[in-house]
Amino acid sequence: MSKFQGLDAYTRRARYELLPFKFDRLEGDNYIITNMTGEYLEVAMPELHVLLAKDLATEHPLFASLRAKHFIRYADEQAPLDLLALKLRTRLSRLTGFTSLHIFVVTLRCDHSCPYCQVSRQMDGETSFDMTPDMADKALDFVFRSPNPAIKIEFQGGEPLLNFQMVRYVVKAAKRRNLDEKRDLEFVIATTLSLLTDEVLAFCYEHDIILSTSLDGPADLHNANRPRVGRDSFERFEAGLAKARNVLGVDRVSALMTTTDKSLPRVREIIDEYVRLGFNGIFLRALSPYGFAIKTRKFMTYDTERWLEFYKEGLAYILELNKAGIPFVEHYASLILKKMLTSNDPGYVDLMNPAGAGIAAIVFNYDGSVYASDESRMLAEMGDQTFRLGSILTDSYEDIILSDVLLDALEQSFTLSAPMCSDCAFEPYCGAEPVFHHAIFRDVLGRKAESSFCKRNMSIFKHLIGLMKSDVSTRHLFMQWANAC
Amino acid sequence: MLLQVSTNPATPMVLRATRAFLVSEQELPEGYQHYLIPESLERRVQELEGKSSFTLLPNDYHYLGHGDIIRLDGQAIRVLFRANSGHNSLLVTEQCNHYCLMCSQPPKNIDDSWILDELEALIPLIPRETPEVGFSGGEPTLAGARFINLIRMMKSYLPRTVVHVLSNGRTFADECFARQYAEIDHPDIMIGIPLYSDDPDLHDYIVQAPGAFQETVQGILNLKRLSQKVEIRIVLHKQSISRLPQLCEYIARNLLFVDHVTLMGLEMIGFTRANLDALWIDPTDYRDVLSEAVGILAAYRMNVSVYNHQLCLVNDDVLPYYRKSISDWKNEYVPECEGCARKSQCGGFFSSGVRNGYSRAITPFLP
Fold first, then answer.
1. Does the complex come out with an ipTM higher than 0.90?
2. Would you call A12 an interface residue with chain B, using a CB distance cutoff of 8 Å?
3. Which chain B residue has the Cα nearest residue A475?
């Protein structure tokens, strides 16, 4: 007899236990099962029945993967529980950091008059829409109350460069305070670059400030989306981009696109424009329903289905680019893929649970109002003050952070207890988004069956899973995306 | 008796009692504990006969040099440490709680605690500038408290020497043991732990020990919880290849925090030869699987190395992770390598591979 025993001798025959998981139909008979740490497997309906009845044979090709991905275990195994707990802690670890992103709306004034814009005023020279030093000081008091070791201060508008002296003031004051606080402090200016000067760039360089700018596509589309006196938004953007990259470095200038109905037939051209300008990725965003977008009914001019076509076409083109040897990322996909393929969470405010509102990001408006998110202040500009958490001038940190407005929104939208979310297999990849649902449904939960947020994301989740299944090289590319964000 | 080998005739008298002098053509200094006379200098025996103890060194010991450490048992000599080798590996015990299908050092279930006595005597004698020392077995941690003591001695006597331990990690599933190990707070030590499959049954079969997978994973978790460095070592053969990409994904999702993952070619010695049918797969037949595995680990930004492979058997995408790992004095080439332009970048073969079989696809790179 051999000293060695065969695989059979080590194959356990005990009855397995189910660990917590959820399932949902992908299409036809094909189901997906997921657990709360984001692991997933595709299972055919008949096998799912057998699995749930705890009758799946050890020899079944799925059995080892079910065990390895912690969908099942034997009763005496401790490692699966330890690993599940570890992965869940990792995914939620951002919560202990609390607020990182602090948005300072230094002015509402803007040199653009974009029809979809959420928040801007056309009043050059008028200062009643500017943040004052007193507000900035109080906002900074608030910022440094956050326990987060990494603090990001983002300047928004309007066009922040129209009140650049306030940007200077906040940066210098924050850095002064940080001599004692010693946080990992980062600054971002969201700007169209149209008013970029050498002086501004020199300041950005000196203080290591990142520029986050906007590019909607080729010149005609960009200019149509972003009207300004002189019709030269694109030209100013392109010149500003070159200048900014030159001084700050290529990776210190990022661009975001806004999708409008005019964008929908032109996704390839839009992506090409990003490629031409040397960006290594694009964020194919859905149009948000806030601000003038809702008022002017621009939001309703195309539906989610049409946007999904746009998104999928764009993603397919991006995959083509990668196969042709041009590394290029779709950032929304990479955020979702991080949730699918890693045990980490990208901390993207729209796809967080509990919601990111207030506890991942918070907004200090030009008038001293504090909002739970950028979208919250846009809603307020439309007359809905629901997510106004208080005023930096009169309320304390505790008043604001512990306000019922915020805590109720977080608690009531919590996806693990929300109807239709709690038993959704895609919940680990999704987020709570109370502000969006309030804006559409007047309640933070909304009706998921009618929610375009739900429809859009479910469709993308399924699409990404399908792409990974259909092609090993796409799966490999997606792994790289998942780990790059 | 352990002795340090010396070629320095000017060693102070007070130290000569702990040294064995390696005889050369030069004049013989007096007062050494022992003398080593290479066979080629046999004529010098007469100078020592009746005065000092000496050993006539067979030609196999031609490599002996200054700083080496030997054990002397009557006329028998064993070399315990070689000062000029970067690859000193110290066997701690031959006992093991695994019985791996491909074990290169088949375990023995005997009391070999004398080895520990020897190591405890050896460590203080190792030159302090030694860059690296490895501990292997058997399963070194089966020595329990005496293993902990060995590591503590390494820190005390050789604080600048990097230590690498080959262990199956199971003993570290005991939190108390893991804590004792971590509390030594050695400045630069890594534990290399094998994990052969994401399927616990398959791993247990490969190591021939039921329950091993669970303990190994918990051992790794305990070590990392205590901020200890861990390397995962995967020997590639027919069994481990069958789920290698799945194993790499398992590692990326569950054990992302390990410090290094190594994918290693099979050595054709020890038990491997007895289990060849279950183990042998030509590396050229798994080259795409290897590429996929490396690709997964690299995508997750893990630190990955491919060891013990011949350059002509890996795809180009593996090259950034390819290490010429087989140590210089061990690596050999086969007739098919004749005329290869990249020999100097290639790890070549273990002599066991040359003797006992290798890939049908060895092909020289043309200049």
1. yes
2. yes
3. B296
